[in-house]
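Continuing the series of single-chain predictions for the mutant panel. This is the parent chain; the variants come on the following pages.
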Amino acid sequence: MFFTFFKIGLFTLGGGYAMIPLIEKEVVDNHKWMTREELLDVIAIAQSCPGVFAINVSTFVGYKLNKTRGAVCTSLGTALPSFIIILLIAMFFRQFQDNPVVAAMFRGIRPAVVALIAVPTFNMARNARVGWANCWIPVAGALAIWAFGVSPIAIILIAGLGGWLYGRYIQPTE
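Parent structure:
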């Protein structure tokens, strides 16, 4: 488990959301530690918990597999590569920060990071059955945060209340 999450942790460009495809491939496809639905639930829970998203996901996966030992093992596996990489960058970055080649590399990484975040977002939406009838909800939430400065916590609470009201009074037809 440690080496699986260490390998995932090596590819942290873009943060935890960029790691979702790697986590899904390893946890669901390669090792079959969880189903896609279980991983989607873990991702939803990890998003609502304080702390680093990738660490939260790895902790929940590790705990499911081997309780506290598994949680510690997978959390360390996820965090250590980032720690080591940041430490190395901090040690040598001052020497290269004004180098045009290094600056160009960082500019080139940005679009790749956007793609690494966008792909799992669309995959999660599909797995969560977000379709044309209800895709306005995340769009409206994002616009409210961006354009009007609404607190993300308020959006989460409103969405939770809306989901509860929908499930309680409208009864989905499936």
